[in-house]
């Protein structure tokens, strides 16, 4: 059996087209569009490239996008004042601060200063708490876990009553996706196990999974014989394993031995082209949700 490939690149296209459509309708109805500000401190090439991609995507769906670049030596107080300004700007519905910040600035202090109702990354403790409570309490879901859940749902995988095994317990992927899959509701209602480096028999747990979500950051950690035939496998790992001399680009590999796993799994995400492309799409979705709530359209 060869697995059906769940393409993040294709699903992202669908989501962005849906968002663009909703933005056009919003503009017609209330004469406004979602506003997103991206704050970049300094000029680290990796951060510049992430921010550029976010800005390009936001513009492509019709958002009012403000790229606010600040010098490397901005003081913590000035950065906090800037956040406060956007917290009070009614045309801004989402605030993004690109990490990492320079060493003289406390990341946590800055992220916690963002109004939780504009925290479209969903890293603020208030949004983490809302996720835990679930249901109507949730305003935004963190983007990578939200992308994973969206892929599971759009691939037609049954989640209700399914055995879900999550490899990894980080705050940005493992813990939130495990909690989301265990909640009551559509695309959830699963029975969830979280495994990590202290787990006694990783293989035995993985073998039970109807849905296996792997976010460990270890290339080829999951062997094909650990996969239950027909399971849906979501590989979150992005590992640089070398350099392609011809293109000058990094060679990327996931946490699952993809070539052999796809002969056993029912559905599987590739790396690259799987979970990766979904994260920014979900960031746009959160910004749209925020604007809809603020403008009374929900
Ligand atoms: P992380 O903070 O390093 O956490 C990794 C988790 O995996 C930890 O909980 C660790 O267990 C567990 N783990 C590591 N090696 C293991 C092993 N041999 N057996 C069992 N568990 C093991 O990583 P992260 O931030 O969650 O990211 C995970 C991967 O996803 C990375 O490759 C990252 O690049 C990728 N990622 C992709 C996206 C995206 O595509 N948009 C977004 C975020 C992350 P302990 O807690 O016991 O140490």
Automatic annotation (TrEMBL):
<dbReference type="Pfam" id="PF00763">
    <property type="entry name" value="THF_DHG_CYH"/>
</dbReference>
<dbReference type="GO" id="GO:0004488">
    <property type="term" value="F:methylenetetrahydrofolate dehydrogenase (NADP+) activity"/>
</dbReference>
<dbReference type="GO" id="GO:0000105">
    <property type="term" value="P:L-histidine biosynthetic process"/>
</dbReference>
<comment type="function">
    <text>Catalyzes the oxidation of 5,10-methylenetetrahydrofolate to 5,10-methenyltetrahydrofolate and then the hydrolysis of 5,10-methenyltetrahydrofolate to 10-formyltetrahydrofolate.</text>
</comment>
<feature type="domain" description="Tetrahydrofolate dehydrogenase/cyclohydrolase catalytic">
    <location>
        <begin position="6"/>
        <end position="121"/>
    </location>
</feature>
<dbReference type="InterPro" id="IPR020631">
    <property type="entry name" value="THF_DH/CycHdrlase_NAD-bd_dom"/>
</dbReference>
<feature type="binding site">
    <location>
        <position position="238"/>
    </location>
    <ligand>
        <name>NADP(+)</name>
    </ligand>
</feature>
<keyword id="KW-0028">Amino-acid biosynthesis</keyword>
<keyword id="KW-0511">Multifunctional enzyme</keyword>
<feature type="binding site">
    <location>
        <begin position="168"/>
        <end position="170"/>
    </location>
    <ligand>
        <name>NADP(+)</name>
    </ligand>
</feature>
<keyword id="KW-0521">NADP</keyword>
<dbReference type="InterPro" id="IPR046346">
    <property type="entry name" value="Aminoacid_DH-like_N_sf"/>
</dbReference>
<comment type="similarity">
    <text>Belongs to the tetrahydrofolate dehydrogenase/cyclohydrolase family.</text>
</comment>
<dbReference type="InterPro" id="IPR000672">
    <property type="entry name" value="THF_DH/CycHdrlase"/>
</dbReference>
<dbReference type="GO" id="GO:0005829">
    <property type="term" value="C:cytosol"/>
</dbReference>
<dbReference type="GO" id="GO:0035999">
    <property type="term" value="P:tetrahydrofolate interconversion"/>
</dbReference>
<feature type="domain" description="Tetrahydrofolate dehydrogenase/cyclohydrolase NAD(P)-binding">
    <location>
        <begin position="142"/>
        <end position="293"/>
    </location>
</feature>
<keyword id="KW-0560">Oxidoreductase</keyword>
<keyword id="KW-0554">One-carbon metabolism</keyword>
<protein>
    <recommendedName>
        <fullName>Bifunctional protein FolD</fullName>
        <ecNumber>1.5.1.5</ecNumber>
        <ecNumber>3.5.4.9</ecNumber>
    </recommendedName>
</protein>
<dbReference type="Pfam" id="PF02882">
    <property type="entry name" value="THF_DHG_CYH_C"/>
</dbReference>
<keyword id="KW-0378">Hydrolase</keyword>
<dbReference type="InterPro" id="IPR036291">
    <property type="entry name" value="NAD(P)-bd_dom_sf"/>
</dbReference>
<dbReference type="InterPro" id="IPR020630">
    <property type="entry name" value="THF_DH/CycHdrlase_cat_dom"/>
</dbReference>
<comment type="pathway">
    <text>One-carbon metabolism; tetrahydrofolate interconversion.</text>
</comment>
<keyword id="KW-0368">Histidine biosynthesis</keyword>
<dbReference type="GO" id="GO:0006164">
    <property type="term" value="P:purine nucleotide biosynthetic process"/>
</dbReference>
<comment type="subunit">
    <text>Homodimer.</text>
</comment>
<dbReference type="InterPro" id="IPR020867">
    <property type="entry name" value="THF_DH/CycHdrlase_CS"/>
</dbReference>
<keyword id="KW-0658">Purine biosynthesis</keyword>
<dbReference type="GO" id="GO:0004477">
    <property type="term" value="F:methenyltetrahydrofolate cyclohydrolase activity"/>
</dbReference>
<keyword id="KW-0486">Methionine biosynthesis</keyword>
<dbReference type="GO" id="GO:0009086">
    <property type="term" value="P:methionine biosynthetic process"/>
</dbReference>
């Amino acid at each position: 059996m060869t697995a059906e490939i769940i393409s993040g690149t294709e699903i992202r296209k669908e989501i962005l087209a849906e968002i663009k459509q909703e933005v056009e309708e919003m503009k017609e109805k209330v004469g406004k569009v979602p506003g997103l500000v991206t704050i970049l401190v300094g000029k680290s090439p990796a951060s510049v490239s992430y921010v550029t991609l976010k800005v390009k995507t936001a513009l492509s769906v019709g958002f009012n996008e403000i790229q606010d670049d600040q010098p490397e030596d901005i003081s913590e107080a000035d950065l906090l004042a800037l956040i406060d300004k956007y917290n009070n700007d009614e045309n801004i519905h989402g605030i993004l601060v690109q990490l990492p910040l320079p060493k003289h600035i406390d990341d946590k202090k800055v992220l916690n200063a963002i109004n939780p109702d504009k925290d479209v990354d969903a890293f603020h403790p208030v949004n983490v708490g809302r996720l835990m409570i679930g249901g109507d309490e949730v305003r935004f879901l963190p983007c990578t876990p939200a992308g994973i859940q969206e892929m599971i749902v759009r691939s037609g995988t049954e989640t209700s009553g399914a055995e879900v095994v999550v490899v990894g317990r980080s705050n940005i992927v493992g813990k939130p996706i495990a909690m989301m899959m265990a909640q009551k509701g559509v695309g959830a209602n699963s029975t969830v196990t979280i495994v990590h480096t202290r787990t006694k028999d990783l293989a035995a747990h993985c073998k039970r999974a109807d849905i296996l979500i792997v976010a460990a950051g270890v290339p080829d950690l999951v062997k094909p014989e650990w996969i239950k035939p027909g399971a849906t496998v979501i590989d979150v790992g992005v590992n640089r394993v070398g350099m392609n001399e011809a293109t000058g680009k990094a060679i990327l590999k996931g946490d699952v031995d993809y070539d052999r796993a796809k002969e056993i799994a029912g559905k599987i995400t590739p790396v690259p082209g799987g979970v990766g492309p979904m994260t920014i799409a979900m960031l746009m979705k959160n910004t749209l949700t925020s604007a809809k709530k603020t403008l009374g359209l929900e």
